Amino acid sequence: xxxxxxxxxxxxxxxxxxxxxxxxxxxxxxxxxxxxxxxxxxxxxxxxxxxxxxxxxxxxxxxxxxxxxxxxxxxxxxxxxxxxxxxxxxxxxxxxxxxxxxxxxxxxxxxxxxxxxxxxxxxxxxxxxxxxxxxxxxxxxxxxxxxxxxxxxxxxxxxxxxxxxxxxxxxxxxxxxxxxxxxxxxxxxxxxxxxxxxxxxxxxxxxxxxxxxxxxxxxxxxxxxxxxxxxxxxxxxxxxxxxxxxxxxxxxxxxxxxxxx
Length: 261
Fold this sequence. Notes:
By secondary structure, this protein is of the alpha/beta class. It contains seven helices and 14 strands.
């Protein structure tokens, strides 16, 4: 059985290479594992529900937290939320000092990006498992059907605790009562890089591949995923594209008028 979890993708916004820009999940790990707040005035930019719980945890630890959600609506939340908005720029050279949102400047010292989750499907794919793009999850998920291989939980696109426990219980034989957990909710609305996005937007933070690099690859005729990888060195650093490649595939699809599949 494969239960390798999932990895949070960043939203791709201008100037996203500044110190103080990180994933919402990374900030939560700093808090829960090390007792460290990554900032005092934090803006969380998201297109999905999972960032709300992370934001509430950071607020409970003492940070001033504001959520900027690209969607028209989201889950109920006591924190300040701006819907239907996106980050238009990051101000600060040595670190985040402010953001441009809706043409206005908002002071902050950390920007957390939550663009949805990518199932960790590498072992499954190495076993010759096939993937499909799931619009409701905004990600590549396993098709299934491999002999002697079962994949469960977030690696299978089950992003709530209740779903993950149910799938794990079934994969383990389904004996006895299934573990209980609150039903939870996970909804996401894709906010992929667009062909006409302006500003410097890093796709691969480790190998410094930007959206403009992917656009250049498209102009030069490097249109397949494998050619894109080799032309730009996308996904060749230590994380092997785990945070970058799905955004890059979506960008190439937008640039060439194709579907992500």
